[in-house]
Amino acid sequence: MPEISRFLGIVIKMFFDDHNPHHFHAVYGTDTAAIAIHSLELLEGHLPPRIQGLVIEWASLYQKELQANWERRKKGLDLKKIKPLV
After folding, report:
1. Residue 86 to residue 76: CA distance in whole angstroms
2. Dihedral of the alpha carbons of 75, 77, 13, 1, in degrees to the nearest 10
3. HEC string for the chain
4. Residues 6+ away with beta carbon under 8 Å from 64
5. Statement: the pTM of the whole predicted model exceeds 0.85
6. pLDDT tens, residue by residue, 30-73
7. Are 9 and 86 in contact (CB under 8 A)?
8. CA 84/CA 43 separation, integer angstroms
9. CA angle 74, 75, 81 (to 5 degrees)
C-alpha cells in the first residue's frame, strides 16, 4: 500500500487493488481508518478525534489530488506524493 503523505505521525496510504467508494487510509500508531474522498466520511476503522480532525482538514485541502491518485491507481500508474499538513 503506497504511502502518499506523512505528517504529525499520521501516514496516508492508498491501496492499488482497493474497492469503491473512492477512499484513502490513514494510519496513526495502531489506529487505522478508511476515509471517503468525496464526502470525507469515516468509512471504517477508528482514529482519535483530534487526529481524525487533522486528517479531514488535510483531505479537504487536497481532495483533487486524492481523486487524481485514485484514478492513477485504477490505471496501475504510480501514485503521486501529496503535500503534508503544515
Report:
1. 30
2. 90
3. CCEEEEECCEEEECCCCCCCCCEEEEEECCEEEEEECCCCCEEEECCCHHHHHHHHHHHHHCHHHHHHHHHHHHCCCCCCCCCCCC
4. none
5. yes
6. 999 999 999 999 999 999 999 999 999 999 999 999 999 999 98
7. no
8. 22
9. 80
